[in-house]
Amino acid sequence: MAKGAELNDRQRTTPDLDELVRLFYDNPSELGEFTEVSAAETPEPFRELLAHDHHMTVTVERFHGSAVDVHVLKTDTVGSAYSRKILLSKQSDGKVVQFGIVRLHCDFLSDIVEREIKSEKIPVGRVLINHNVLRQVQLTSLWRVEPGQELSERLALSPGQVIYGRTALIFCDGEPAVELLEIVTP
């Protein structure tokens, strides 16, 4: 079997929102209600934070003027796929600035990169950058998010506050190695 053959054609080109959410939630609406939107329909500062083909780690750090720490809330491993539900918080004051669900296809990562990611101490984007992995970030969709209770609490949102997120795919050395759901706070 060729490397990556276990991925179907759809997974090779775009992460599926429901599939990513279901990695950690029985019902996707527990996390929130998602509506796909265009970049033009995404208000600032969310558009600046999300509507691009760059690593969120770098974008969030630049926007907030602070390096970020990763907090891994839960992990799951199925075959060579390692998934985790995370928060990123600013080192400067501890404020949570991003919620994410990440699924990594470890067959496409070197052993050292995989070990460092699984150490749960450094954001995925920073690990890939630090190891000079040839990567391409592909924005696939932007989302208007009406957060559920858990997401509202984790991001310290006001009741009814709408936020935005994105799904993206990171190709490492030309292979679809990382599927992402990234939801940010303003």
From TrEMBL:
Q: Which InterPro entries match?
A: Chorismate_lyase_/UTRA_dom_sf (IPR028978)
Q: What highest taxon heads this organism's lineage?
A: Bacteria
Name it: Uncharacterized protein
The organism named in the record is: Blastopirellula marina
